[in-house]
């Protein structure tokens, strides 16, 4: 698969809130090909760490190429005209991206109306030849949140603005693929630098920074030394140091005694959204055997779930999911209740384990990874997955589009995405299970043992 | 104690008693419990039922939904309590939801229901589930409670986790809404949609509970109930409860004009007198601060007149639950002679029977007036109510025109606007988050369902189609952006030193600025505190108090401004121009004055609070008035002081428009704010402003803009035809109890002139009254 362009969108009001170490952390996490700043910039140093030479793209009517991906930036309609012409030539048959401030999604609840402001003039400036083989564009709208994607009468609009997550802005990292796929990862800015550590919020981060600590030095600090700082007790000092060690060394640290399930059934589900109306894929990995249950048509979802329950009945193990109590288990519970009420009791009696909750909430382990996302933890533990170019949100979006009469999804790609998630989970589980209460480095563990790319059996409905 | 004895015994009596009105006693009309209830239940009922209880229970038995609207203390609770009991006997697994407007009332009703079920020998567990419920207990309530008592803010927040409520929702046989009159205005708008969302989820669990609403007397019970719950309800308003004889005394503090004694100081003396003469009294005042102040004043008065020991307490929502419970108990068991309270005790908290109520000024609406009076004289005992008149225009009017409050059928309507698109659309998002939306949901959301879904789809909030199900597509919860009380903002915690035994509830931002600015001296249950710390930054805003002992209290002064006008639409009316758009409304609590506790006089010059202004961006309409009109109206209506007359004309027109706004859009006039400027810097001329009193605006001013001809014509007609004397108006036309400048100046003739001129400049005047004039 051709390499996507990775772009970090960083408006100056967000950049201005980051300390140098947080900015460096953000770049390390995003590893961008370019930083996209949707306004004129006078001091590029505010957007990248001192040693970095990552290009800073601002709206100046220019065209850039990253691998197979063409990206233009434009602040005026003239620039749109010019850049679109060049981009058409350069992009050839693949999709070109245009970052712009000229399009804005405006909602007027009083009139029950949402408009794409600036669309008419923009469309005119863009011009369309209408001939076959004309390049497709995705328009990256600076004022629209990065989790937005929608077609507006021929204009394919993708958002670029930071999304607020629990009150803190998250910097969007967009993977722009040549086929028009955009995968968005959001990096919460309140989880950068010292604040990436468990137990460290704004005030402790300030205390630690004033006392001259950074993450690396904290990992080598005896906890009792921190316990003398204001706002720290012995327990919190220990948590902070352990978390720094885990993060800096890519280690799992066991902090509690609760055992992990002996016979795990790793599970991941795909749905049509965060408050789903349908569960259309269930991926399970049991004793090395991967299985996928897939409903191509929502009408088949009930039958698919039934088959999953049938399979589960023959398996003697504990279901393990990442953030399972936050999503997979209650969603399955609702859908089992709705479609197979007679089997709900059996489903409920199945033992279940949420690996994230087991580690974080029940304090059995401190995990590495900048965030609690499975991808971040697994990658800190050395997992190398297969970039399918998809995210959970993107798979949900494509399935919704299919339900609503859009193009048929590439089922194999979705199946591979789900399988990758399940194997990632198994990798983390194994890493945790392999760690006893004495810290042991697993950074140099080989990944071969879980790097199994064997196709699982695919059950279809 | 009655009015005659009060006159004879009150120390320093000097003719304060102006009028006494008598409500005669009424006998109970009862029905044997066995006529209505099944034999099991009837046998354990210790008394008969009042006729209205019987009527309501019969209607429920026929499958009708009911709204019981009878007097205070007429036993409305028993209607849903017995309906729940009946359902329980029919099916022991059945559950009920009871919605109360306040957390305090929820706990009170839980106690009342539990006691009743004990008496009846029924094993029905009644539990409260709200923001104060311990998280350990919540799961247990959801799993085991038969009756869950909560509030609508809670329901808004709990609905997304409906699967955790599957048992309670699925077995729900009764949905009771207590004190339904409380859901009016913006709050009522939100509640009406939360009810629909709740009923939609109940339906998903195959529950179709019977609905029981209770309400204080309002002008439009049937309409209000229908709007609130989306269905026809049977109104039961023929009150069968007995009533003692009640005297309503109108009491004028002594002195004339500027020298007239303040109503609250006079009320404190009355409270001391009644309380020390064995008449347990509930004294209503207008603010939390005044509850504390009058508690002190009454104690001092008792000492001054050697009346003996006076056992009184203050009561307001700033007190902790524990303190409030103790005060309520004190009233019930007679260990308190009196309580000074805000309207917090206006709703049906059970405080037993109080013999007298004191109203320190007319409370602003006839509904509140009757609610507060009704807190005295439970049962058949005689009751006394005293309205102590303030020296302001509205109270003067009420004293001169007692029929305004005492006449038949004078209680205000409860108003709920379901046509407001912005609020509707916000709740539709929540509904999609709770369960996928399909075409079937038109039943709950009407014809606006499809266009609103399309709006949110385009905005990226919803995805899917109504054919296959529309779901919510963002990570944040839409429920958390529903501001049920239209008074969002951070809460400030209030801290006192560790060695001081005082606990205060957190306060919202506006109240923190108004009452807890640095330097403010505040009373709390008899202890004075000074604000020594005001910390707004950081995770948890906070206020620090230190105990002090001084002979003054503080009063905050404020200035309201409107600016940053951004006109989106405008129309000319002759030389006047009407605009609609957005504006910043800024309230600056800039200074405070120290006032003597003994005399209420100001001590020294105002001090700066050091606080920055509080600002809100909202929607507004404004009428730019040409300078030539300032000169013309001023000269014509006030030769000696033309600007005062002109300002009075603008001010009266502004009040009139706001007061008549409910005719054009269903709103509570308190949801609008207004301002008149002699010269507005951005208009460079005089101007009248009317704005939505909610951050962001809700489209009220927009409707008034669109229908301005009708609004202006209505206002002119009402002001012109009002029978009040002089040019200062009355509460029936332009006076408003919420006016920040004490209803001064007002000029009715000037307002009629101004509005007439505006209308003559309109292209075509659509006269709504359809009369020739």
From TrEMBL, chain A:
Which SUPFAM superfamilies does its entry note?
Ribonuclease H-like
Annotated YprB ribonuclease H-like domain ranges read 265-431
| One Pfam short name | HHH_5
InterPro entries, sorted = RNaseH-like_sf, RNaseH_sf, YprB_RNase_H-like_dom
What name appears for this protein in its UniProt entry?
Answer: Ribonuclease H-like domain-containing protein
What organism is this sequence from? Halomarina rubra
UniProtKB/TrEMBL annotation, chain B:
List the InterPro entries hit by this protein, alphabetically.
Answer: DEAD/DEAH_box_helicase_dom, Helicase_ATP-bd, Helicase_C-like, HRQ1_WHD, MZB, P-loop_NTPase
User: Can you give the residue ranges of the Helicase C-terminal domain?
Assistant: 266-443
**Keywords tagged on the record:** ATP-binding, Helicase, Hydrolase, Nucleotide-binding
| Transmembrane recorded as keyword | no
Transmembrane regions listed in the UniProt entry: none
Q: Name one GO molecular function term.
A: catalytic activity, acting on DNA
Record-linked Gene3D superfamilies: P-loop containing nucleotide triphosphate hydrolases (3.40.50.300)
**Helicase ATP-binding domain boundaries:** 57-236
A Pfam family found in this protein is: DEAD
Respond yes or no to whether keyword Nucleotide-binding is given for this record.
yes
Coiled coil feature spans: none
What EC number(s) does the entry state?
3.6.4.-
Q: What organism is recorded for this protein?
A: Halomarina rubra
Could you tell me what this protein is called? DEAD/DEAH box helicase
